[in-house]
Amino acid sequence: GNRLSNVSLPQVNLNTQPTVSSHVPLKSSDHLHHHKKPFSVMFFSDIEAKEFEDAVTLAAKEVPPAGLTTFELHDMVSKSKVEMEFYDMEAYQYDELEESVELLDGIMSVYIENALGLKPTLLDVICIIEMDSYGHFEKKAKTRPQSNHGSPYFAQGFDLEMEAAQALVLTIVEKGLKVKGRQVGKVSLNLLQYCDEGPQHVDVNIHPQGSLSLRLQYYTPEEAAHHLEVMKAQTSTGVFGQNLETVSLREGQLVPNIVQICCAEVEKRGLEETGIYRISGLLSDVRNLKQLFDTNVESAQALSVDCDIHAVAGCLKLYFREMPEPIFPRGMYAKFVEGLALQNLQERQTCLLSLLYSLPDPNLMTALYLIKHLKMVSANSAENKMNNQNVSTVFGPNLLKPDCKSDEQEMSAALDVVSQVNVFMFFLDMDVEMLLIEEKIPTGNPQSMPRGHRRLPSSQSQMSALPTSSSPATPSANPRKFFRKA
Prior knowledge:
- 38% of the residues lie in helices and 16% in strands.
- By secondary structure, the protein is α+β, with helices and mostly antiparallel strands.
- A hairpin with a 5-residue loop joins β8 (200-205) and β9.
- α7 (283-295) crosses α9 (309-321) and α14 (388-399) packs across α16.
- The longest helix has 18 residues, at 361-378.
């Protein structure tokens, strides 16, 4: 309006692609006053639009009061704001992106710790994170509101996907009942400076006041997929109905706690229990154990000591039954069945052992752990009546499942229980040495399992590394020792 006609501000040429920001406010000229066509001013982000509005408000205070008040101006700008649809929006970016400028892809993990040196107020503050992509800035995330006592503690992290990015903008904004968003401080970071390997702790000054502490870690596109899997595992809850790899990543060990705890308890007081793993436990005890294993493993372990041993065994069976992907993956089911059908015993053993040792680390170690435990159960079959045949009948259908893509295949699989039982019984019938089970697979001690994922040698390298009858095994620094029957 006329109030701004005498304000001396830098001028923007609206006949070119607009790259307007708060640092380049519009100048009101006679050309604009007499032009009948309205103009639209484009901004990279809401923050830039807010800065421009603040700049106009500040400039208006320099002229004699007349016409619009500050509140009227704010209301007018707010009502004039139009959220453009994607298909109506043209591409506005920096004037030119130099070809030599490096642009980043992947993930930037940003953890905002706290701010220092802010002017205390009665309002809450949030930190808004913006990142560019090919020069276009967009809001990526914002923290939860925190009281502004001068040093707000945010303690919140975000994984931000990057596509041709080079800058990160952090803006601290005040919010209240009568204040929709007032900028407190802002800082821009060049992401290329934070691409070194490993997390980096950064303290940056924010303009016009205070500082911000944060941690940054860059993941290349190759590293990003694994990082997201780890984060998903760490933030998910429960063990029932979860993939074995997810549970292993979260717990940091190859054999889940539930398997180790239940097996240990059965070995302690259930090896001579008639029908162990075949007789059902009290349903209420099984449900209580399941709930505690999903929420508090320490409480689950304490309860497993006191409740009926058949409920502990039933809880372990339920865990394997509810796995979305069984220990022996569905995609390998046909190969196991075909290997079992080989007529030559040596070929059958070689084929099935090769398939067993091709499983992912958590699957392999859990399978070996369970096989060793169930061998202890069947070794007491004179008392508990659970020989290899009976144990395999209970566990086989839960550990090996075909990949069914139709109702007919599911019906056929239901009739194929014999194959599931026989494949698992083949491993139970084998000697521990022939199975290449490690010399010291811990039994019933959740803390003694090796932490982290370590790939076992391939079956071929295992076979070649085994001692022959004429060359006895010698101690090795390698924690993995394998034996076979001479």
